[in-house]
Amino acid sequence: MNSSVNMEKLVSLCKRRGFIFQSSEIYGGLNSCWDYGFLGVELKKNVKEAWWKSVVQMRSDVVGIDSSILMHPDVWKASGHLDCFSDPMVDCKVCKHRFRADDLNSDKCPECGGELTDVRQFNLMFKTFMGTVEDQQATVYLRPETAQGIFTNFKNIQTTSRSKIPFGIAQIGKAFRNEITPGNFTFRTREFEQMEIEFFVKPGEDMEWFEHWKKERFNWYLKYGIKKENIRFREHEKNELAHYAKACVDVDYNFPFGWSELEGVANRTDYDLKKHIEKTGKDLLYFDEGTKEKYVPYVIEPSAGVDRSTLAFLVDSYEEEEDRILLRLDPRLAPFKAAIFPLVKKDGLSEISRDIEGKLKKYFNVFYDEKSSIGRRYRRQDEIGTPFGITVDYQTKDDSTVTLRERDSMEQERISIEQLASAIERKIYG
Ligand SMILES: [Zn+2]
User: Fold this and answer.
1) How many angstroms is it from 95 CA to the middle of ligand 1?
2) Domains of the chain by range and CATH?
């Protein structure tokens, strides 16, 4: 358990500073639903961009897709989600609380000691109705994973992008699971965002690619600042593998509430494509022009949680020093890259600062602050992870230089306004 951070303090900072709020707060909140505030939305967007850059834009063998949340209900029949995507559940006959059967140690209610119902299978998919008639025929599901939108478009994407195996399709999007026991802040929620890749390979080369993606994805977290000691692999036992998987490994993070999954890398074999071929009768086979072979590809799936990674980056960067709290966020993930402070509001310093703000905004996200003492303004930015502080003082009027302060070391250097944008960009992106 990660004891250097206290979850309560982190949740409080998230609310106080505008990272994360409870959904529908003014109505008393909606259980396990969260809203990202003006800082949270930037952080989360940067996490998604870092992922997209690493798995799509920096590679030549992965392309993207953005498929719809609502899909033909037969998709979920074919994929097995309608029949198999469920948790064993019991209800308390007295207090009506609902529990996952596999979480319980006794046959009595852990809340009130009451008698429990028999175990029932509870499907985790959210149902809704399409059109104006609320009947069985109109039932559609909110997708429980983004993956199926990739499988059903396999042929469309492969032919239009003229991709040759091995290649992958990546997607970021919302998914929904009616979890019986959500919790731990944004870690387990019923509405969440996924970053998924389905990487199609020739059968027989699957385990090699499984190892490739394990390594790639693990290193991505390290690259963006997660401490080595707080991240690990956890291999799945044979009996906990999903119905479609041949192998699966979790990337776990050492949260204050214990080691928990950030991402799963699974070998889904040819299960999904085969099921869709069976159900639709469509030819989703891959034709290898070189060898003239036709086959159903195997699939390696790295599937990461956006909200979970974002939470891990927050937890991992949180630090308390003697007189300040700071988020040592990787500058590429930080909501604001720099904050601009006039030393005082008068004598034209505000105007110069506003001018610098306008110039820098073209390159990256910046924040302007002229309220309260300079020390307090620095600390406010430290607390939200802004890596650089720019102070405009009287010397600026003489020689067009400003002070550039670095968040972690608090070191300051004098730099000309002209060089500011390129100097900061170099420090952020290398
Ligand atoms: Zn009870």
Assistant:
1) 4
2) 7-73+131-316 (3.30.930.10), 336-429 (3.40.50.800)
Sign of CA dihedral 135, 136, 137, 143: positive
Q: How far is the CA of 32 from the centre of ligand 1 (A)?
A: 21
Using the mean position of ligand 1's atoms as its centre, give its distance from the Cα of residue 111 in Å: 5
Confidence at residue 3, expressed as pLDDT on a 0 to 100 scale = 62
Whole-number Å distance, alpha carbon 92 to ligand 1 midpoint, is: 5
State the distance from the centre of ligand 1 to the C-alpha of 117, rounded, in angstroms: 11
pLDDT in tens, 418-427: 999 999 999 9
The CA-atom distances, in angstroms, between 303 and each of 7, 168, 180, 247 are 25, 13, 21, 14
CA of 88 to the centre of ligand 1 (A): 17
The pLDDT score that the predictor gives to residue 2 is 64
Query: Mind listing the pLDDT tens digit for each residue in 242-261?
Result: 777 889 999 999 999 999 99
Closest Cα to residue 220, out of 302, 341, 342, 125?
302
pTM score above 0.70:
yes
How far is the centre of ligand 1, averaged over its atoms, from the C-alpha of 99 (Å)?
Answer: 10
Looking at the predicted structure, is the pLDDT value of residue 334 above 80? yes
Helices (H), 232-305: 271-280
Gap from CA of 109 to ligand 1 centroid (Å): 5
